[in-house]
Amino acid sequence: MRDRNVLIIGGGIAGVTVALELAEMGIPSTIVERENRLGGQASVFACKASEKCNKCFACVVDNQIEEVTRRPQVTIMTESTLGGVSGEQGRFKAEIQSNGRKMLLDASALIIATGVDFFDAKRKPEYGYGIFQNVITAHDLDEMLRSKGGVHRPSDGGVPSKIAFFQCVGSRDETIGHLWCSKVCCAYALRFMKAIRHGNPEIGTSFFYIDIQPLGRSFESLLQSCRQDEGMRLIRSLPSKIYGHGRSTHLRMRFIDPPSGEIVEEAFDLVVLSIGMTPRGDADGIAQVFEIPKNEEGFYGSPPENSGVFLSGACKGPRDIGSSMVDAKATAQKIVQYLGGI
Amino acid sequence: MRSSEDFRIAVFLDRCEGTLDHLLDEEMIKYISDLPQVVFCDQDENLSSPGRLEKLTGRLTKGQADRAVIVGGSPRVYEQSFRRLGVTTDLDPYMFLVANVREQVAWTIPDSKRAREKAKAIIAKTIKETQFLSPIGREKVEIPKEALVIGGGIVGIRAALALAEANIRVILLTRAKDIGGKAIQLAHFYDRPDDVSSWFMKQVEGVKKHRNIDVKASAELKDFEGYLGDYRITIQNPRGKREVLKGSAVVLATGYDVEPNTEGIFGHRCFISPPQTEAKLRGAGKSLKDEKGKPIRTVTFLLDVVNETIKIDSANAVKNAILLKRDYGCMVYVVCRDVKVSLDGMEMQYRKARELGVIFVKCDDTPRFSLVNGQINVEVKEVSTRMKGSEYSLSILSDLVVVSEKFVPSTGNQMLATIFGIPLPQEGYLMDDNPQFTQVKTNRRGVFIAGGCRYPQTVDEALVEAEAAASGVIGLLSRGVYEFDLAIAEIDPARCAACLTCPRVCPHSAIVVEQYAERNIYFTGGYEKDFKWRAARVLPSQCYGCGICVSSCPTKAITLKHLTDAQISLQVCT
Q: pTM for the full model?
């Protein structure tokens, strides 16, 4: 069975890492990616180093993509989608639509690595995303750092003096039915603050949160260094609403100040919303084709045993780049076991 | 060295999508073609796009050139693709250099006249440098399908099973009398209904019955040596008998330790640890009583005093709080700094606990404890209800207080780091080679780490790591041989003074000192005919070719085959 192809649906970091890991074992695979490039959601991030590397994993993505394109065992099909699957387990026939053409592919196993969508911040209108120019998402900030190399106010291009990071936008929120933690956003926002304060020490940053969620082995030192920095305030409180004025760069917000327990009002000139992850909009279709159950949150649960279908990465629930890669490596192990070992 | 007339250099120009057109024009091509030894000069619009390099080098006739120079962008762009050209050209993969006129000239020198001069200088220097190139060659080592797994906890067990299922012979070593570890202390999983002990026994049985797995219990590690494909571990049993075990690759899954807190009031019988809580729940039956037979009505979980950035305690507290509240009707308080919900399905569990009536109390400071009529009074500075005048705003009279044990690096990590040559950072957990690029791999090729020896994590996360490490081993072992370029360091044994500097500085444990040198320039005679001198030797399959040993060798006995000192001198001095 080993000479037969493993089909990977999704060319994000999880799909790419599975392909690389399988290639190491000499197992050929085909990546089917809907977009015109590999990398998926993981490829939009900017490096968040301050005086030292903050272990954000952004650099790994380009490296993995470069690596996978060089492997003769891996076939990459971009701008392609899965039409349907027939055949029984171990001998699948997958119909792929690639650039308007239809083709049939043999597959000995199928890996679903379709990842997640990011939360649309417009669904929380009280935060004013799309209304006030100086309210941006963490991804907009990433884009800003990646393309312009620094942080600025979208309204007038000036360097902001006070930045507020709002955590749990689209996560842990009963009002929109999202009862899950996106796991990565605390570390993500703290790294942002480290990187910004390293480049512009005059910028004051505030981090509004419910609970700080640890991520990975280096989180302890990251959190300690943030707590020691006087220019970073960690505030256990989520503002309820943002008030803005058309002609002013400033945004006012009201929140409960934890030490005093009183309602205070404060102005910031840039608000960054740490948007969470949600199950993909088209998750149902794939779940139906492969009979994958969905868990309470709407992410994929384990596929039936011995079905020849495997899951990898964030489609199982929010994951950061690092854990998606470890998860992908573990998936490769399951595949090799399913295909009868080496 | 061969005379320079013998060289036949092919030069390929990359115009980098037109961005180098102003430098690489007709005049420049003529300049390059007129340089001595240049036998071929051609150009392409964009050499970094797939297939273009193959096409350009394909224009060479067989034997026309013996070394190549690419003029264009950074070496990073071309190096890998040039080395993979393979059969399309008879050029040696290492007989080529890059003249970077994009970053070093086009992007940095605006003045066109100066830029042109600089570009010419760089190209001329690079062409001169080709005289120091020599073919590198490849080597193979045999890799039998055998692996060693160290650590008999759940991670070691999972890794051993994963390897055995992939048809690899596994020796599973544990220091303890039997395999097992800490996971067996759990009564339930937080996220699935399976009973831990039956699930766990199934895993243990699986290991013991598997024909590909040998278990060596009560094994104390004494020594480790060798290289990928031939690692040898020396173990010692309690009676002092030593044994050497062989394996092609190694997975370290030695876990972490815990430090219970029993100082002062924490020694009181009302304070129990999370494993004691699990044991109590497992043996509780229908009602929960303390050892005097009194029913337990109020339980307080105290989190984040230790282990603040580890999720394990929080997950177990939420899981057990639900059980205590739902099945035994206890009042349950969870006192913590942050509720860690960043685990799959944990937020739902947390909501469920709150709906059942478990009270989560957040505080930034350690609570105050006092003994009141045989109960523990836990006084907390709760963050949101703190009122003026009362510092400790909440007091919880508890029958039981569950205090976390501090997770600490295993005391054996220092010894493991020393004998395996793995770096041990200040916090005391074993280090991956590069925490981003090569997770679970260590700096020693073929040695992997997984689970609690990296940092304490929940059972689910640790199992995924065990499988990831197994996947790495399977990848290395699948071909039966490991083939690699000899782009490594090489030691001239005659010049080696056996000072032991290089084995100490080598980050990859790739240098050994052995008695193998025929000659030694520091001794002039007076020794027997077949005598061999001690000298350092590079284990080729372990070497990453980083050059650290080269720069630290006091006698200059080491050369880096793919980047010699002569090349560096030429680069620096011209």
A: 0.93
User: What residues contact residue B193 under an 8 Å CB cut-off, 6+ apart?
Assistant: none
Chain B closest-CA separation from residue A88 CA (Å): 23
C-alpha to C-alpha distance for B565 and B547, rounded to whole angstroms: 10
**How far away is chain A from the Cα of B308, in angstroms, using its nearest Cα?**
8
Q: Which residue type sits at B156? A: G
Q: Answer whether A336 sits within 8 Å of B384, measured CB to CB.
A: no
User: Considering only alpha carbons, which residue of chain B is nearest residue A326?
Assistant: B468
Classified as helix, coil or strand, B451 is helix
For residues B471-481, give the mean pLDDT: 94
pLDDT the model gives residue B1: 42
Q: pLDDT tens-digit profile of B214-254?
A: 999 999 999 999 999 999 999 999 999 999 999 999 999 99
B345: amino acid identity, one letter: G
- Per-residue pLDDT tens over the stretch A155-170: 999 999 999 999 999 9
- Rounded Cα distance between B448 and B439, Å, is 9
CA–CA distance, B50 with B249 (Å, rounded to integer)? 35
H or E segment and range at residue A335: helix A321-338
- Distance CA(B232)–CA(B247), nearest Å, equals 7
> Average pLDDT for residues B459-463, to the nearest whole number?
92
Mean pLDDT of all residues in A126-134: 92
Please give the backbone phi and psi of residue B280, each rounded to the nearest 5 degrees, phi first.
-60, -45
Task: Name which of A186, A316, A322 is nearest B436 (Cβ-Cβ).
Answer: A322
* Contact yes or no for A219 and B309 at CB 8 A: yes
Interface pTM, i.e. ipTM: 0.94
Per-residue HEC secondary structure of B350-387 comes to HHHHHHHCCEEEEECCCCEEEEECCEEEEEECECCCCE
Residues of chain A with CATH 3.50.50.60: 6-116+279-338, 118-277
What's the fold here for domain A118-277? FAD/NAD(P)-binding domain (3.50.50)
What's the gap in Å between the CA of A322 and the closest CA on chain B?
Answer: 7
Percent of chain B with pLDDT over 90: 66
What residues in A contact B467, CB-CB < 8 Å? 329-330, 333-334
Per residue in B320-357, pLDDT (tens digit) is 999 999 999 999 999 999 999 999 999 999 999 999 99
**Chain A interface, best mutation among B80, B256, B347, by max A CB count within 10 A:** B347
Q: Residue A146 — very low, low, confident or very high, per pLDDT cuts 50/70/90?
A: confident
Please state, in angstroms and as integers, the Cα–Cα distance from residue A155 to each residue in A134, A158, A204, A248, B383, following that order.
6, 8, 19, 9, 37
Q: What is the mean pLDDT of residues B82-86?
A: 78
Interface-testing mutation among B309, B386, B433, B476, with chain A (most A C-beta atoms within 10 A): B309
Other Cβ atoms closer than 10 A to A297:
18
The CATH number of A6-116+279-338 is 3.50.50.60
Q: Say what the alpha-carbon torsion angle B342, B346, B347, B351 is, to the nearest 10 degrees.
A: -150
- Expressed in angstroms, the distance from the first to the final Cα of chain A is 11
Minimum distance, in Å, between the CA of residue A106 and any CA atom of chain B: 23
**Going from the N-terminus, what domains does chain B have, and what CATH number goes with each?**
4-135 (3.40.50), 146-257+408-482 (3.50.50.60), 261-404 (3.50.50.60), 486-573 (3.30.70.20)
